[in-house]
Amino acid sequence: MIKVEKSENKEFIEKSINHLEATGFENIKADIEGYEKPKSYVRKGSDMKITPDIVAVKNGRKYYFEISLKSAKPRLLKSKWLFLDTLSRMNSNRFRIITTRGHYKFTDSMLEDINLSNKEPIKI
């Protein structure tokens, strides 16, 4: 989710965090108020910062979670997902997408566009 949309969808991020806690994730960091903020990465050559929506640990392995809701800026979202996927593979971590009803088709087409169709989104 891009920064502009995070304040509008704070409720869904909290719902996702509750789901992750219930499935055994710990040390959860989220890009919303009330939680420790995950590490941001600055894009070289511009001032754009990339911050994962949620970062959590399970069984000693770090997971990056992105919330997938319909977006007005899909190109920005695609580049963020590709970066986080590459970052997670470099460090032997995991990258997952969380989505909800009404956004499945958007999420699937986005994943297909950037050749990440092997990723199965978590449906809440």
Q: Would you identify the regions where 5 or more consecutive residues have pLDDT less than 50?
A: none
What portion of residues is helical? 25-40%
Task: Count the beta strands.
Answer: 7
How many domains? The number is: 1
> If you compute it from the alpha carbons, what radius of gyration comes out, rounded to the nearest whole angstrom?
14 Å
Write up what this structure looks like.
The longest helix has 17 residues. 35% of the residues lie in helices and 24% in strands. The protein has a single domain, classed as Trna Endonuclease, Chain: A, domain 1 (3-Layer(aba) Sandwich). With 124 residues, the chain is α/β, with parallel strands linked by helices. The mean pLDDT is 91. Strands 1-4-5-6-7 form a five-stranded mixed beta sheet. The protein has a two-stranded antiparallel ribbon with strand order 2-3. It has four helices and seven strands; from the N terminus they run H-H-E-E-E-E-E-H-E-H-E.
